[in-house]
Amino acid sequence: MRLTGYVATLACILSPFAGAQPPSVEDFFRNPEFTQMKLSPNGEWIAALTSVNKRRNLAVLSVDDNLAVPITNARRTDISDFYWITNERLVYLIDIDGNEAFGLFAIDRDGSNWRELVGPRDGVQVFPRQVLPLDRLERDPDHMLVTDNERRKLYPDVFRLNIHNGRMTREAPNPGYVTDWITDHAGIVRVGIGSTDNPRDLVTQIVYRDSVDDDWRVLTEFSQFDEHGFTPLGFSADNRTLYVRSDIGRDTQALYTYDPAVGALGELVFGHTEVDVGTIALSPKDERLLAVSYEFERPEIHAVDPAFAALREAIDTALPNTFNRVVSVSDDEQRMLILASSDIDPGGFYLLDRPRSQLRFYASRMSWLSTTALAEMQPVTITARDGVVLHAYLTLPNGSSGKNLPLILNPHGGPYGIRNHWGFEREVQFLASRGYAVLQVNYRGSGGYGKEFMDIAQRQWGLAMQDDLIDAVRWAIAQDIADPDRICIYGASYGGYAAMVGITTNPELFRCGVNYVGVVDLPELYAYWSASPIASGTEAWFKRAIGDPRADRARLAAASPINNLRGLDVPLFIIHGRRDPRVPVAQAEALTRALRRLEVDFDLLIKNDEGHGFVKEQNNFELYTRLEAFFAEHLKPR
């Protein structure tokens, strides 16, 4: 396929978008032209996920040419992610129809020498077997490091994997309770992060070793619920000091240095009083710290390195109307791929050629969507009934007065640690294009707002967390944004649970509800997890975060929507994937059986080839076509 493109200097303003027809369901939910782009280590090649056979497949193009050549031909399912291992060889991940038991495959950049390194497992289970990339091992071109949880589901070992024949040798056996590993800049496994096998409390444990020949030692242990602590993010250039995210002595997590030899936090690198810091960016050339991310109302990058700060300023001058994120960097830092996007811009990829001080536009993600057809996402602040300040996003239909609109309350999933973000969301834009205001609330327990905001959500499923959502709806009514007679609640995962709680406990507020892969029976969810090879540490999380299935039996039963269906007359649409490993389809099946016994009508869409959220293009076409009709029927004026 030929990519249209052009070259411009950093002083120019670049825009990939042209006019487009009013967007259809297919316009919003067909696969993007390119969902990811990554530079090869030497910066000479770009690999990308692109649509082939209506599936996300892998393509490669030269930075000096604009011809993208597909090198995979997946037909049943989509490629989830990919990585350059060398300049000639890539690996990619595929699961079986959404069951998240990912297999690992390798292929040369010209499409030759395809190899299944680790096959995906069939079947559906919580915590499925996964082999996931950890380190590409720049000094060993025939191998990479991967984590493999086949021996212990929650606590993976680290293996050295041959990228040509798939042979694996154990590099670092799990010393106990490590769930996440960190390597140093030489590819040595040096840090492990996990939770101890404690049935009463969720205790985070961080282990460390100075070299491959040293024994593991515990750097720290702390209660995830009751104490402040830190999380390692990576090594500094000296390969000894760690960068860590910590809330010790403060509410929000800030970026610090940490010396394992001393065992204490060092320099405060960057912190924000309102929100936690996010990820860090390190130079692939000399491992210096470049930047740290955070998000209050909009995503932000705090550049730590002066040279990188100047470079970002030049990029932002050239691309002034978008949030510009460096998504890939060559090993010598001479070439960078930048994704420029905004709330009304699905994004375009640009190649920065530093010696020439040029940006080259490569591709739009969704060139058929015009910015003029999309609606702005506004950050808003709402005060809950108990005085807690909630941050939310409001998207109003283009051309509307912003008053007396049909409203869709769209709670996010998770719930803990997840949050809504400012930026382009095709589902939100689809709903706004149909004339609906969309309200997304970062209710208590949402991630990024500090420890106190997380702690006050403990054991508040269906209680204070739900009150936040109800208070947000009442705020929208009080502001004359929402027509009180035309409000629907629609969410996925925990958001699906919140939708079910909404229509069963506040049916007077909602004209309809949509439960997408949502929980309806909390004790049954606990039973599903407990029947798997699950550690008591995760059981401890459930008991502290949601409730003890024995001590809190009555409360959990009352907070389970499946027990509150009698008398329900709010129209309901239930959506689920049969291969969902997180919230099993049994939850949706139990709900539909209960509704039929009560002779309550509902709409239903269950797909056999999907998991925790639909991925396949044709299934999304069906889902959103039916969703459009559902909302049109139930949110029309009386």
Can you walk through the features of this model?
This protein has 638 residues and is of the alpha+beta class. It has 3 domains: 6-364, Methylamine Dehydrogenase, Chain H, CATH 2.130.10.120; 375-521 and 561-634, Rossmann fold; 522-559, no CATH class. It has 11 helices and 36 strands. An 8-stranded mixed beta sheet has the order 29-30-32-31-33-34-35-36, sandwiched between helices. The longest helix is centred in the last third of the chain and has 18 residues, at 617-634. The chain is globular and about 65 Å long. Mean pLDDT is 94; it is low at 1-20.
What is the H level of CATH, i.e. the homologous superfamily of the largest domain? Answer: Prolyl oligopeptidase, N-terminal domain
CATH class of the largest domain: Mainly Beta
Biggest sheet layout: 8 strands, mixed
Mean pLDDT: 94
Cα-to-Cα separation, first versus last residue: 49 Å
Looking at the structure, the CATH topology of the largest domain is Methylamine Dehydrogenase, Chain H
Number of DSSP E strands? 36
What's this, in brief?
It contains 11 helices and 36 strands. The protein has 638 residues and is α+β, with helices and mostly antiparallel strands.
Descriptive labels:
638 residues, alpha+beta, Methylamine Dehydrogenase, Chain H, eight-stranded mixed β-sheet, five-stranded antiparallel β-sheet
